[in-house]
Amino acid sequence: MIVIGITGTLGAGKGTIVDYLVNNKKFAHFSVRGYLCDRLKEQGLEINRDTMTSLANRLRAENSPSYITDELYRLAAKSEQNCIIESIRTPGEIDSLRKLGNFILFAVDADASLRYERIVIRGSETDKVSFETFLANEQREMTSTDPNHQNLAACIAQADYRFNNNGAVDELIKQVDTTLLNLKF
Fold first, then answer.
1. How does pLDDT run across 115-131, given as a tens digit for each residue?
2. How far apart are CA 11 and CA 100, in angstroms?
3. pTM (2 decimals)?
4. Most buried among 30, 69, 75, 134, using CB within 10 Å?
């Protein structure tokens, strides 16, 4: 079993890579966002970026910086198939997943204006924001010295493979396929 974690900037194409691996390479998908949304629904709370971030930070503070991805890894291990864990957000998550073995970290990025256009089209609960709010949300999640809070910059810096998604979807998929070949997958 191989576990790929994916990190990256908001709207960069993490979901596109996940969809490709699930639909074309038969990976099982485990989502931090899905985990948090399920927990928020259980608590009767609104689903938006602020409530998701607050819950994630609280769970990490109460348990460990890698708590959420550790929970997802346990589910992944039970599946006994190649898996992708979507939305790695803290260096502690990366450290924990690397210790568990068979872990590779992908990162994806694109220009901010293009990413904003993509989230507007996607239109999820967390995407209905102005461009200014989009940039502020990302900045808030980009760096933190608190190990329980998001630090996308540090996560991206630790990636084993980085993808630029400023082009068409097929260009991104070509980058992913080349990487999978290099990994002898």
1. 999 988 887 767 778 89
2. 28
3. 0.91
4. 69
